[in-house]
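Limitations

Structures in this collection are predictions, not experimental determinations, and the ligand pose is part of the prediction. Treat each record accordingly. The example that follows, with MTE as the small molecule, is included so readers can see exactly what is and is not provided: the inputs are given verbatim, and the output is the predicted complex.
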Amino acid sequence: MDHNDRTKRTPMGRSVSEPPGRIDRRTFLARGAAVAGVAASAGLAPGANEQGLAGQPWERVYGAAFTGYGQPSRFELPVVRHFLRPYGDLAPGTGAALTPIESLEGIITPSSLHNVRSHSGTPDIDPKQHQLLLHGLVARPLEFSMEALWRYPMTTRTYFIECSGNSLRALLPQPAQIPAGAIHGNISCSEWTGVPLRMLLDEAGLLPQAKWLLAEGADSAHMSRSIPLAKTLDDAMIALFQNGERLRPEQGYPVRLLLPGWEGNMSVKWLRRLKATEGPTHTKDETSKYTDPLPDGRALQFTFEMGVKSVITRPSSTMTLPRPGFYEISGIAWSGAGRIRRVEVSADGGATWVDAALTGEERAKCLVRFRLPWEWTGHAAVLQSRATDEKGRVQPPRKEWIAQFAPDIKFHNNSIVSWAVGADGSVKNVYV
Ligand SMILES: Nc1nc2c(c(=O)[nH]1)N[C@H]1C(S)=C(S)[C@@H](COP(=O)(O)O)O[C@H]1N2
Ligand SMILES: [Mo]
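Predicted complex:
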């Protein structure tokens, strides 16, 4: 449709020809003043700024002392991870602590809010006692102290980690009315620094029969997974740092495996052993879990790469829009296959779509932030986002995705997420 057809405005600045809730970046920018107007009606009386210059209480007292390790403002204390503890207090560190994606912006997850997925809690590992063994089908078995690992050349990359059980709660029979992060927050994105795994494998000398690598953690579950060699020689990293500091214990301190774009489970934390093998080991963690049941009774095993996906984080489930007017729709998108090429947003439950602006799309296997201005007219609306990656894969509608699997499917849900905005401004999780 020609944008010039939309220039007839009412005195309120609303185009009479536009359908309710239409979204358009140019309209938003042209009418930025209207947003300021909303703020004025929200209580900022003219002249309030000048009065404010007289000084708030904190402007008249000496500030707090330095702290050794900084913390967020006390006013941000409610921003915390969402716990999913299937065994309750019996196993308080088992399950997941999901990132409050609904409260965050940009693409980096603060380390303290990184999602945590653990099968047997977080071990308290002394880095001086911890060793990484590299053995099996190699010419020279090696054992690395953490100090030894530090002496290798390192690389720094920004990658997401998504649990393949993310969005499990979007498969409940009824849509859960909980924050976006409690449903879709089993994902985070950090800057990781470490040693390319390839370098250690080259040093050990892989034998020709070696085709897979078993990775095992030092937690009491001894979580372990089999990894095809091609990935370990590609972009796999032995990560030691997260967002500039040593890994957090919950992320695998003192050392973890990082397999960019692959299901989070394979990025073995608290890494203690890598064993080169001829075939996959078929560990408990890759047979009893992380398989996808099909309608004909069979199951898919080894679904490594995470699908193309996106979710609108603002506005999202359990939020309330205080009044009609301009909002910025904001969300995250990612793909295990590489870069995000496009994110489209719909405000009418998928009938029409508009391209959103992207931040960070030059990076592969990294979160991308998408944003789009939106005018909420006060009518009911259904907000959705749909991502496309550089391989041309498009995020599927929920019904289409579900139809591929048996009813007890639990993993790899990358289907489109829908948030319904009611006439009262309430935002609800809905299935479309
Ligand atoms: N040793 C070990 N590694 C592990 C796990 C575990 O329980 N033990 N959980 C896995 C799972 S299921 C996921 S999704 C990722 C999560 O990484 P994060 O907690 O840093 O987000 O770690 C993986 N690595
Ligand atoms: Mo996971």
